[in-house]
Amino acid sequence: MAVPKIWRKIPEYYNLIGRQCPECKELYFPVRDVCKKCGCLEMTDYKFEGKGQIVTFTITRTPISDPEGENTEIPARDVPYAVAVIKLEEGPMLTAEIVDCNFEDIEIGKNVEVVFRKIMEHGAKGVIQYGYKFRLC
Amino acid sequence: MRKVAVIGLGQTRFGQLWERGLTSLSVEAGVKAVRDAGISQKDVEVLYGGTMSGGLFANQEHLASKIPDYSGFKNIPSVRVEAACASGGLALRQAYLDIASGEHDIAVAGGVEKMTDLGNYSVTKVLATAADTDSEGIFGATFPGLYAMMAKLHMHKYGTTEEQMAAVAVKNHKNAMTNKYAQFRKEITVRDVMESTLISDPIKLLDASPITDGGAAVVLASEEKARELSDTPVWIAGSGHATDSISLHDREDILTLKATVEAAKKAYEQAKLTPEDIQVAEVHDCFTIAELLALEDLGFVEKGSSGRFTEEGQTMVGGKIPVNTSGGLKAKGHPVGATGIAQAIEAVKQLRGEAGNSTGAEIALTHNVGGSGGTAVVHIFRR
Ligand SMILES: [Zn+2]
Fold first, then answer.
1. Per the omega criterion (within 30 degrees of 0), is the bond before B202 cis?
2. Which helix (H) or strand (E) is B168 found in, with range?
3. pLDDT tens digits for B170-212?
4. Based on C-alpha coordinates, what's the Rg of chain B?
5. Which residue of A has its CA nearest to B147?
6. Residues of A in Cβ contact (< 8 Å) with B144
């Protein structure tokens, strides 16, 4: 992945900054440039607190790491790992890994909070991308 | 809009076809369909071809030029259609709209995917591009992972069991026994499914459709041409297409594929039919939970009751509504771009009385989904 692509995602991935519609006040995360509800284009930044609830989750056990080292934009990962759909307290939902816990403790409805972690390394250039993950709280 | 009929069917064997390439699969399916229609390549006026990613799977784009050239369809207009796993169903719809509009009289709608030139790891990554790379894929959501999250919530909310999901796979494997093009012609048991490798909790290997190479094509004709050329035209009575958010987390309800609901609504309205009128259906069972969700979103059962309905045998041949009589994506195989066309082939065979698991049906429905529900295409066919 090119460095500019990582750089332009920094507010969203590092600081959980999404968008708010100034007209109808609807909140969005991940970032959207147009309000889905009213079509407004002049969206403003909105920083989410990073607290929410698990809507659903899964523990993925088969690796998607690539032994041939082919370069795609989806990172290799160690398995198993937990992924959840999380409903933020402010309303929007997102997809993220659940970390720092025993998988047996993950349940639908449990409260979670954001942590910032390494998401992936980009090949030989060694560019490291950080982003949001969540932990039980 | 003019009436449109399906008058020719062609497909390759589905499976891990090491000896076959993308072009060869496309050509075989298309030319077989043309011959089945009793016409020749020079009669084909336009081609619509569905493929998810010739580029990422097989390093070939611009298929809209290559396929008609190698098929002997000289200089015709040709359109490549992409909507992830719904590419085939959407190619069928675009060909249908073309003929219905009066622009052309004879069209080929095809679909193809060559998946096994990549390793399993890479295939998983390519398929993940049908989800939102920036907000799902990069954060660890794989395709099985997304459907697993739907399955987990369905179990939590409605008490659906892993055994009920397994019953989908058992039925579809049984159905594939009579399909000579199917990837798997081997019966399995609920226990086999339960004991298969866990991929993404609760989805196990035998809940998932396989990685498949294959091509499929149909010939569509205007009413005038269809009556002239065919003794057994099958009419497209309804065609619906809708989209929804590409990412699962942006849906109004994670357990409802609104794209399916909306596409079905359009198809039912056009055909002046209701879900109760459908006698046989091919639905998009990329994972067993996907077939259960489809039964609900297409209106065959109430929300939440699809697991029980399936466990009771109501979707088996002889049940209330036979589903995936071809073996479905699960057992017939799922060469993603070809799937929507292969579904139409089974529907037409059912109505012609040529299906392996014949139901004697006169009205059939097909349902093709892209991604985790970002696209859905529904067609209704009548004899
Ligand atoms: Zn707004």
1. yes
2. helix B162-176
3. 999 999 999 999 999 999 999 999 999 999 999 999 999 999 9
4. 19
5. A58
6. 60, 62
User: How close, in Å, is residue B137 to chain A by CA atoms?
Assistant: 6
Interatomic CA distance for residues B21 and A107, integer angstroms = 45
Contact B207, B170 (CB under 8 A): no
pTM metric for this prediction: 0.96
Tens digit of each residue's pLDDT (9 = 90 or more) over A101-127: 999 999 999 999 999 998 877 666 677
Residue B8: how many other CB atoms lie within 10 Å: 25
Same fold, B4-119+212-235 and B131-208+237-382: yes
Lowest mean pLDDT of A8-17, B265-274, B304-313, B327-336, name the range: A8-17
Q: How buried is residue B343: exposed, middle or buried, by Cβ count under 10 Å (0-12/13-18/19+)?
A: buried
Give the pLDDT confidence of A41-70 residue by residue, as tens digits: 999 999 999 999 999 999 999 765 444 444
Residue of B368, B349, B145 lying closest to B249 (CA atoms): B145
What per-residue confidence (pLDDT) applies to A74?
Answer: 54
A73 vs B contacts (CB less than 8 Å): 133, 137-138
E strands of chain B, at which residues? 4-11, 46-50, 78-81, 106-113, 198-200, 203-204, 214-222, 234-243, 280-282, 363-370, 375-382
Q: Which of B126, B139, B200 sits opposite A58 (nearest CB)?
A: B200
Give residue B214's identity as a one-letter amino acid code: G
**The tokens 């069209």 sit on which residue?**
B107
Question: Following CA atoms B157, B161, B167, B172 in sequence, which dihedral angle do they give, to the nearest 10 degrees?
Answer: 40
B286 is catalytic: no
Task: Answer whether residue B310 shows pLDDT above 70.
Answer: yes
Q: For the CA atoms of B127, A9, B59, B95, what is the dihedral angle to 10 degrees? A: 60
Q: CA separation (Å) from A31 to A16, A110, A120?
A: 9, 25, 20
Fold of B4-119+212-235: Peroxisomal Thiolase; Chain A, domain 1 (3.40.47)
Nearest to B100 by CA among B6, B5, B2: B2
Peptide bond into A30 cis (omega under 30): yes
Mean pLDDT of chain B: 97
CA distance B38 to B358: 24
Q: How far is the CA of A25 from the centre of ligand 1 (A)?
A: 6
- For residue B352, what is the enclosing H or E element? helix B336-352
Q: Are A21 and A35 in contact (CB under 8 A)?
A: yes
Superfamily of domain B131-208+237-382: Thiolase/Chalcone synthase (3.40.47.10)
The ipTM is 0.94
Q: Cβ of B373 under 8 Å from any chain A Cβ?
A: no
Marked catalytic residue, from B154, B334, B367, B379 = B334
All structural domains of chain B with their residue ranges: 4-119+212-235, 131-208+237-382
Tell if the CB–CB gap between B144 and A64 is shorter than 8 Å.
no
- For the question of residue B334 being annotated catalytic, the response is yes
